[in-house]
Amino acid sequence: MPKVPRKDAKAALQEAPMAVDMEAGHEQAGQEQPGLPDKPNFTPLSAAEQGGKLEFRRVEIKTTAKTVSPDVLQKAADFVHAFLLGFEVRDAIALLRLDDLYVECFEIKDVKTLRGEHMSRAIGRLSGKSGKTKFTIENATKTRLVLADQRIHILGSFQNIRVARDALCALIMGSPPAKVYSKLRSVCARLDSS
């Protein structure tokens, strides 16, 4: 990316047009995806339609006459739960489409009791420099991780969650990242061969 001189930085920001209209959907962006239905248009509910209880932070999920299976309610609840935990929308949508995906949550204090600076260092070891450690564990185990303060959320298949959790626990206990990477490499190679 070219450097912008300090005096021209403000002008460059004002000239940049909005690239994609967020309300337009995927048709105008030129990214048609075959097999997916068109994006539905919903009108916002008024306070009377919501029951007038806006102070409660809840999501209500209902079935309709077109609902084929009652399992979709649980999948919808899992989708909302994953999104609220901090996973990206596309990762949460994977819960709707694939049957063998799960979300596991645990806290750092469940692995080892840490306080103050020690807790901060453990969180830093989990994320790594610029998120490198987190990214490496995600790619090696085919999972998604969310580090939310002292809580860790893992989305993936059962075996992959177990491998990712073991790597995260080793980092929390103080193992150097290089040792965790080498162990992760051997375990993932064993999983891929079987």
Protein topology:
Layout: H1 9-15, H2 71-85, H3 89-97, E1 102-107, H4 108-111, H5 117-127, H6 132-141, E2 144-148, E3 151-156, H7 158-173, H8 177-193
Antiparallel strand pairs: 1-3, 2-3
Helix pairs in contact: 2-3, 5-7, 6-8, 7-8
Question: Looking at this structure, what is the CATH superfamily of the domain at 68-194?
Answer: K Homology domain, type 1
Please trace the helix and strand order, writing H or E for each element.
Answer: HHHEHHHEEHH
Shape: globular
Quaternary state of this entry equals single chain
Question: Which fold name is given in CATH as the topology of the domain at 68-194?
Answer: Ribosomal Protein S8, Chain: A, domain 1
The end-to-end span amounts to: 44 Å
Mean pLDDT: 79
What percent of residues are in strands?
5-15%
Largest sheet: 3 strands, antiparallel
Give the CATH architecture of the domain at 68-194.
2-Layer Sandwich
The tally of helices reads 8
> By helix and strand content, what is the structural category?
mainly alpha
